[in-house]
Amino acid sequence: MSFLLVDDGTTAVAEALRVAPWMRGRGIAGAIQQFSLDFLRSNYPGATRIRFSGTSETPPTIMSRCRKVHSKSLISVVIPYEQMEEKIKLLEGRLEGVGGRRLPVALSPSEVLRLFEDPCTTERLLPKGLLIQSWFPLSTHRSNLELLRQRGVVWLYSQPSASISEICTGTHDSPYTPQEPSAPIPLSLPISSSLPNPSIVSHTSCGFLSLGTPPFPVPLGDGMCRFDIDLFGTDPVSAQSHVLHQLIEMQRVLPAGGGAVCYLFAETSLFPELNQFCQGLEPFYKVIEQHVLEIEV
Predict the structure, then answer these.
(1) Residue 293's closest CA among 116, 61, 35?
(2) Using CA atoms, how far apart are residues 25 and 29, in angstroms rounded to an integer?
(3) CA 105 distance to own-chain centroid
(4) Given this model, what pLDDT does residue 133 score?
(5) DSSP 3-state of 196
(6) Which residue has the higher pLDDT, 127 or 204?
(7) CB-based contact 290:87 (threshold 8 Å)
(8) pLDDT tens sequence across 40-84
(9) How far is residue 108's CA from residue 222's CA, in Å, rounded to a whole number?
(10) What is the spatial distance between Cα 256 and Cα 81, in angstroms, rounded to a whole number?
C-alpha cells in the first residue's frame, strides 16, 4: 500500500493494496493498512484526509467506514493488434451521420490550466469537483494538474454548443505534443489555439473532456498494453467521439505489434450508450463500477 500526496499535501490518495489469495484471512491487509496510516500521521501531519477508489467488490467493512464521494461506470475491452484497424473502423462507422458535435481538440498545458479557471468546468463537468484520472481521484489543484502533465496524459476537449470562432481564435507560440516527453509523435487531431472566453462558456454548455493515459505494458502476452480513457461530461455522442479519438491517438503510440486492454471510465448515465457503442469488442473485466471513497485521517 502506498500514498500519493496531492492538494499541496493536504490529501493522501491511497493506491491499491492486494493480498495473494493463499494469504488472505490472516490479518495481513489490516496490519499493512494500520502501519501505512501510522506512517502517514507521523510523517505528514498536514494530510487531513485519505481518498481512494474502490469497486463493487470492495468489502462492506471498508465501505461502511468511508464516505462515498462519487461513482462512475467502468467498461473494459480487449483489442488485439491484428484487430485494431478493424475495431476502430467499426466504431468510426457507428459515429457516421451523427452531427451537431465539435471534434475533440488537444489542449496544451496552459489551456488545461485556463479551462479549470472557469467554475463552470468543475461544477458541470466534474461531479464533486473531482478529476478522476484512472483510479486516482484528484482535485483540480494546480499541483495536481502539473502531476498529470508529467505523466503525459492526453487532454481532449470539445465544445458542442460553441461556434468555431469561440474555440479556434488566436495562435500558439509553438505546437503542443501531448505525449511529450515519452512519445514525441504529434497528434493528428486539431490543436486548440484558444479556449472560449470564460464569460462565454459559463452561459453555454461546458462541453466534454477526456483524458488518455499513455499506454503501458501489462503481463498479458503478445505485447499487450493497458490504456485508460477518463470521460467527463454527460453527452452520449460526445462520449463516443472522445472514445474513438483517444483510441486513434493510442494506436499511434502503441509499440509495434502491440494490442491494448482499454478501460473506459464514465458517468453512470452514459453506461447504456457506451456499452452499446462497444458491442463487437471483446469484454475484459466484469467489474462495471468505480466508487470514490474518502475518510478523515
Answers:
(1) 61
(2) 9
(3) 16
(4) 95
(5) coil
(6) 127
(7) no
(8) 999 999 999 999 998 888 888 888 889 999 999 999 999 999 999
(9) 33
(10) 9
